[in-house]
Amino acid sequence: MIKASLISIAAYAPKSILTNYDLEKMVETSDEWIVKRTGIKQRHIAQKDESTSDLGYEAAKVAIKRANLSPCQIDAIICATISPDYLCMPSTATQIARKLGLLNITAFDISAACTGFVYALEMAKALVESGIKKNVLIIGAEKLSAITNWKDRTTCVLFGDGAGAAVISQSKDENFIIDTHTASDGSKGDLLITPGCGSINPASKEMLENELQFIHMKGNEVFRVAVQTLTNDVLNILEKNQIQASNIDLFAPHQANLRIIKAVQQRLELNDDKCVVTVDRYGNTSSASIPMALNFAYENSKLKKGDLVLLDAFGGGFTWGSALLKFGGEIYNVRENF
Ligand code: UT7
């Protein structure tokens, strides 16, 4: 039976950095509050003329290179995003494909908010294991600054821009994706929502005046459900696969809030060196957060071939998911950046 493997990881963060001190000058907040409640110290913000597909493309080309493939060997692109280049069409995946020079390829977006990368991983695994596709490029890319209300202190301190990408291919050894789990509960959709620009509140002067085009979140209600759901989800996937938490080499959770990450980490009884934290430097980058965290571990030699990796994510919808995999990528080449 064919097994799918995650054979490369890469990420891109836009150059410009917005610190908590910068935000103090924009809204009534403080570095102390933001760090204490979220763990975030700074976030990267894309330029005005930099699109979500630009960010995704930067991560994608490195992921393809690290997979020792050329773009023409990729036969499907899945982009997870809640901040696409265009609301309806063309999809961001098609625009990343265009930038990679791929003009005859399966390419589509998925909308699963912060869980998008885990959803994309599950789709890619299915495509590869069914034999339908050989090399699937999955991307989480977000320009959340474009859908953030910079006057709303309850949300604008949380989000950042960035992208992460991975190549999923047929496994040649024991380092394959062991299992994925994805789920949703639409009854809580209103707790984390961009109410405007869709069929319910189409673009209008009134819609813009009410600022419905931006992310709206009932933070503390989301927080409570996130901790409970994520904890159950990671315990379930471990139990289902009869794997002890102590065997995990790397836990790469969605980076929304350090307190959520720590709660799940403690439940798993994992040491800090097994848990990737990037929320301090990138903020919450939604679907990009897991691949950016994985890439951070990879480039800091904390992720190597054969490592047992646990992913978890929770986001708007609500959606949530987890994955267990043995990393199939080659060791990071430090010379790459010279
Ligand atoms: O990625 C998708 C999933 N998202 C999440 O998982 C996010 C989950 N939620 C959270 O991470 C947290 O709920 C937040 C970080 C968003 C908020 O933290 P909190 O501890 O839940 O704060 P809160 O919303 O209960 O607000 C506490 C207080 C309020 O003041 P009062 O009513 O107690 O006087 C807020 O008005 O903090 C105030 N506040 C702020 N103060 C300074 C809210 N935002 C700010 C701010 N600066 N930026």
Could you characterize the architecture of this molecule?
This protein is α/β, with parallel strands linked by helices and 338 residues long. The chain folds into 2 domains: 4-170, 3-Layer(aba) Sandwich (Peroxisomal Thiolase, Chain A, domain 1), CATH 3.40.47.10; 177-276 and 303-326, Thiolase/Chalcone synthase (Peroxisomal Thiolase, Chain A, domain 1). It is 32% helix and 23% strand. The protein has 11 helices and 13 strands. It has helices spanning 20-24, 31-38, 52-66, 92-99, 116-129, 153-156, 205-209, 219-240, 258-268, 279-282, 289-299; strands spanning 4-12, 16-19, 42-45, 76-80, 106-110, 135-143, 161-170, 177-184, 192-193, 216-217, 250-253, 308-315, 319-326. A 5-stranded mixed beta sheet has the order 1-7-6-4-5, sandwiched between helices. A 4-stranded mixed beta sheet has the order 8-13-12-11, sandwiched between helices. α4 links the parallel β4 (76-80) and β5 (106-110). α3 (52-66) packs across α4 (92-99) and α8 (219-240) packs parallel to α9. The radius of gyration is 19 Å and the shape is globular. The model has no long low-confidence stretch (mean pLDDT 97). InterPro entries: ACP_syn_III_C, ACP_syn_III_N, FabH, Thiolase-like.
